[in-house]
Amino acid sequence: MGRGDPSMISLKALEILKKCPLVMGWRNVVDKLREYIKGEVVYLTYTNQEEILQKYLKTEGDVCIITHGDPCVSDWEFLERIKAFKADVVVINGVSSLNVALARLGLDMAHIVFATLHARSPQDLRPLVAILHHRVLIAFPYPTADGPQRLARELIALGATGCKATVLENLTLKDERIWQGGLEELSRETRHFSDLSVVAVDCRGSS
Predict the structure, then answer these.
(1) Are residues 132 and 174 in the same domain?
(2) For a designed S-S bond to 185, which of 9, 65, 164, 181 qualifies (C-beta 3.0 to 4.6 A apart)?
(3) HSE on the CB side for 71, CA within 13 Å?
């Protein structure tokens, strides 16, 4: 599905969804598309996903799993769990919040470096800091209320200084918000950010 906005689902994904006999996914994703689902629905949670995936993916027949955004952007761990139970997995690409963030910021993929901390095994930020004077960092921060602040503090500790920061919350949703300031200012920010946030850090031009 698109980045929270169900109208951003691709036509191909929608046609497959309508014909699928079994649809699985997180409740906040599946329920936005219930009007198109004709088959059985099974909800995933962080506590039951291993059990549910094993139960249904080892059986014969088609299963559709809906996720936010694009399964190939910051969702490799989930894809690996799926592939562990079902070998013939077909990925239908979608619109990621990364795409939406680039549009809001007026950037191209060629201008950025991407990192995700929204995983059980977050990326190492150290190799990225060396190129931040040439590329804008777009990151999915830790999925906590202070995730952007934690990211800012880690980057500063690694030597990123004099950088501009932007936090884009709830992209494509009705309560979409954008915060802008310096990286140091973000590290001290006391507000709680949405766990659906994208952070942009621009150190180009800083000494």
Answers:
(1) yes
(2) 181
(3) 19
Single-letter amino acid, residue 153? R
Q: Select from 85, 113, 144 the last residue of a domain.
A: 85
Q: Tell me: the pLDDT tens digits for 134-179?
A: 999 999 999 899 999 999 999 999 999 999 999 999 999 889 999 9
Q: Answer whether residue 91 is part of any domain.
A: no
In the structure encoding, which two tokens stand for residue 25, read together?
A: 């996914």
**Tens-digit pLDDT profile for residues 48-103:** 998 999 998 887 789 999 988 888 898 888 888 898 888 689 999 989 999 999 99
d(CA 192, CA 190): 7
Q: Are residues 121 and 197 in the same domain?
A: yes
CA atoms of 143 and 145, how far apart (whole Å) = 7
Write down which residue in 85, 117, 141 finishes a domain: 85
* Total tally of structural domains belonging to the chain: 2
* Cα–Cα distance for residue pair 122/142, rounded to 1 Å: 8
